[in-house]
Amino acid sequence: MTVFKTFFKIVNKYKFTILLYTVMLIIFAGFNMQTSDNSMSFVASKPDVLIANNDENRKLTNNLVNYIESNCNIIDIEDTEEARNDALFYRDVNYIIYIPENYSRDFLDGLNPEIEIKSTGNGESSYAEMMLTRYIKIANIYQKETQNEEELIDKINNALLNEVQIEVTSKLDTDNLSRATFYYNFLNYIILAGCVYLICLILSSFREEKIRKRTIISSMNYKKHNRQLLLSNAILTIILWIFYVILSFILIGDIMFGKHGVILIINSFIFSICSLTIAFLIGNLINNKKAINGIINVVGLGSSFLCGAFVPIEWLPDNILKIAHILPSYWYIQTNEMVKTLETINLQTLKPILTNMGILLIFSILFIIITNIITKKRRKIA
Question: How far is Cα 260 from Cα 177, in angstroms, rounded to an integer?
């Protein structure tokens, strides 16, 4: 009981630090929630296209021009190459199509006449190129079947009218799941940095000269002392974890009551235990309170950046992710990312998630064993 009482007296001194990390979580998570509410939708924007047609009054050529006109904004400028280049340079047009002389006749004869283009290289020009390429590919297919111009035009137009029907079968609430994933990914830094900071400060207080000597000469062995300290730290960690979970229900909402939310909560609990053991190990390795801030930067910020807590994991280079495999944060964040795309929840789909959680537990056991070895050796030295 003496260890417990001393522990929570020390915790009371650092309550403002706990508050600081909580405020950070609310600010960053709240900002993300606000930006996520601005739903993004795709609207096809018509590119500005200039057509230099040198094969006028031919049905096939006119059909191509009509198709481009129906899907793009046709721009008319002075009929000189200098004016066209200026329009392209100043982005007055995105795409210029040069239809050569005798294009229709050469095409019907199977000579594959080339249509030259000029492009700004932006998104609108890519869209214009996609439409032109689509028309030419369809025309090439049907040209092998018929050389009759009117019949060929009918076949091309009928093919262009066919559109793929897309049916959205996923019923995932992707917006709220993305928000929940961001919150719990960012929680990686809050829990890890918070645990390391608080626990290292608390343990350094226990290792002050007078307290350390009294502990050594007492009847309590190092394993029992470590267990009581670890249990005290565990209680603090669980209290913080419960508080952050409750905060997630407030900030994120109903999605946390579903199966996906439950998995995120369980995953964060296991990671909290792992963070506790990391902090307990570091706390037993260092004696200098001034070094704690530097350690937080290395452990908390370093693992958060490397493992995708701040930057989406799909943006990280492969060589960085290979290094991240040796860090517990990687397995925690990987699970969160899996949950975001989990459409059906059954034993098969949960296997990789359970594997990641198991790896976190193995890390925790390993850190406890190392801590006991270090503590035993230090007592012998003392």
Answer: 8
pLDDT mean over 72-86: 88
Q: What percent of the chain has pLDDT over 90?
A: 18
**Residue 353 token pair:** 């998630």
What SS3 state is found at 98? strand
Query: What residues contact residue 186 under an 8 Å CB cut-off, 6+ apart?
Result: 25, 28, 29, 32, 309, 310
* CB 97 within 8 Å of CB 52: yes
Mean per-residue pLDDT of the chain: 81
CA–CA distance, 51 with 99 (Å, rounded to integer): 8
Judged against a pLDDT cut of 50, whether residue 41 lies above it is answered with no
In sequence order, what DSSP letters do the residues of 33-94 get, joined into one string?
A: HHHHHS-----PPPPEEEEEESSTT-HHHHHHHHHHHHHSEE----SSHHHHHHHHHTTS-S
> What own/partner pairs with CB < 8 Å and gap ≥ 24 does 147-152 have?
147/108, 147/109, 149/59, 149/60, 149/104, 149/108, 150/59, 152/60, 152/108
- How many CB atoms neighbour CB 49 within 10 A? 24
What is the structure's pLDDT at 266? 96
CB 360 within 8 A of CB 270: yes
Q: For residues 273 and 237, is the Cβ–Cβ distance under 8 A? A: yes
Tell me the CA distances in angstroms from 92 to 95, 109, 361, one per residue in order.
9, 36, 60
- For the chain, the distance separating the N- and C-terminal CA atoms, rounded to the nearest angstrom, is 24
pLDDT at position 250 over 70: yes
Winning range, highest mean pLDDT, from 132-141, 174-183, 283-292: 132-141
Burial pattern 155-171, b for ≥16 Cβ within 10 A else e, equals bbeeebeeeeeeeeeee
Look at the alpha carbons of 59, 60, 64, 70 in this order and tell me if their dihedral is positive or negative.
positive
Q: Given this model, what pLDDT does residue 304 score?
A: 87
Between 346 and 11, residue with greater pLDDT: 346
Q: List the Cα angle 195/197/202 in 5-degree steps.
A: 90
> Does the structure show a pLDDT above 60 at 338?
yes
